[in-house]
User: What shape does this take?
Amino acid sequence: MRKLGLDFGSKTVGVAVSDELLITAQGVEIIRRKSPSKLRQTLARIDELVGRYDVDTIVLGYPKNMNNTEGARCELTMEFKEMLEKRCGISVVLWDERLTTVAAENAMMEMGIRREKRKDYVDEIAAVFILQGYLDYIRK
Assistant: This one.
């Protein structure tokens, strides 16, 4: 069984999946939607990926503020978590995602990816960082 990592944003969801040994996370795709409230197709796509990759747990990035408080984005993430659990029928773990987007941006700069191309990949790479953090944690 594998784990699926998600970076849930207002118009995109970055997706990553673990290997079967639960050692590494790899980027899969970015699910895009036209409106923040249009989640039906996003949930359907995630459910497809859960089946395709034989996933038993979803690791959902939880966007706490830097001072450890929870803002409006956390509320939306909790609602999305409940929708995922209902749609996919598997457990969804919340994982602190602070600084994952910054880490993804820094990694892309180090790889020499041009600034205008970074926005095309940042959510997927952030999902990799979220999932990798979780995999490292469960291995300890």
Observations:
- Residues 2-139 form a domain with the Nucleotidyltransferase; domain 5 fold (CATH 3.30.420.140).
